[in-house]
């Protein structure tokens, strides 16, 4: 049996207001076996199904190498004072240190930036954390192409929806997203062809 619980939250980024919901699936029954519950958090964010939509949504398109994790923080804000963290809920954002090697859209002067990805959600102080269905994770030492916005308050770079980033390896660009519907929309291609497609969107 599947149950869905909807929770509105005030977030620092990626959106001022977002709706995140839990989907709980109960496996088994009490008569012949122990029941187990699998819980996943879901977020309603924009899905870009073509290069035109993705490029138009992004203020910045950056190429960079992940140097490591800089830390984590709580995106959930107090409804009375957005400068403070939500005292009950926790939306974990992971900050990655990224060394910028190329700017494909936008103008920045920084050579090293912080890129933020939402990893998990917890509703209530004593509630268990659940991994976001949008979380992919960045690997240290790997190169990526990011389609991002920049927070005016923190200076960190964050997603414009899905996809957020592509892996760049051996001069090929590969989609990194849990949205299976995007796989055929953004096939693996050579980096130069990828940049040409961006320009000809």
Task: Characterize the main sheet.
Answer: 9 strands, antiparallel
Which descriptor suits the 3D outline? globular
CATH top level label:
Mainly Beta
| Range of strand content | over 45%
Task: Describe the protein in words.
With 201 residues, the chain is mainly beta. The protein has one domain: OB fold (Dihydrolipoamide Acetyltransferase, E2P), CATH 2.40.50.120. Helix content is 8%, strand content 47%. The chain has two helices and twelve strands, in the order βββαβββββββββα. Strands 4, 5, 6, 7, 8, 9, 10, 11 and 12 form a nine-stranded antiparallel beta sheet that branches.
Give the SSE map.
Elements lengths: L1 E9 L6 E11 L8 E8 L7 H7 L2 E15 L15 E16 L6 E11 L7 E2 L11 E8 L6 E3 L5 E5 L2 E5 L12 E2 H9 L2
Antiparallel strand pairs: 1-2, 2-3, 4-5, 4-8, 5-6, 6-7, 8-9, 8-10, 10-11, 11-12
Short description:
The chain has helices spanning 51-57, 191-199, and strands at residues 2-10, 17-27, 36-43, 60-74, 90-105, 112-122, 130-131, 143-150, 157-159, 165-169, 172-176, 189-190.
Defining traits:
mainly beta; OB fold (Dihydrolipoamide Acetyltransferase, E2P); 3-stranded antiparallel beta sheet; 2 helices
């Amino acid at each position: 049996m599947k149950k869905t619980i909807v929770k509105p939250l005030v977030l620092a980024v990626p959106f001022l207001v977002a709706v995140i919901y839990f989907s709980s699936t109960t496996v088994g029954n009490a008569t012949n076996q122990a029941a187990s519950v699998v819980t996943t958090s879901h977020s309603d964010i924009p899905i870009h199904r073509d290069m035109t939509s993705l490029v138009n949504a992004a203020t910045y398109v950056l190429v960079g190498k992940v140097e490591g994790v800089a830390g984590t923080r709580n995106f959930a804000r107090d409804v009375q004072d957005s400068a403070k963290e939500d005292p009950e809920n926790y939306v974990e954002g992971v900050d990655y240190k990224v060394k910028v090697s190329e700017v494909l859209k936008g103008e920045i002067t920084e050579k090293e930036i912080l890129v933020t990805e939402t990893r998990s959600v917890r509703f209530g102080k004593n509630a268990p954390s659940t991994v976001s269905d949008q979380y992919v994770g960045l690997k240290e030492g790997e190169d990526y192409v990011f389609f991002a916005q920049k927070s005016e308050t923190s200076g960190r770079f964050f997603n414009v929806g899905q996809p957020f980033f592509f892996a760049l390896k051996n001069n090929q660009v590969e989609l990194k997203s849990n949205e299976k519907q995007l796989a055929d929309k953004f096939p693996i291609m050579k980096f130069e062809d990828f940049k040409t497609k961006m320009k000809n969107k």
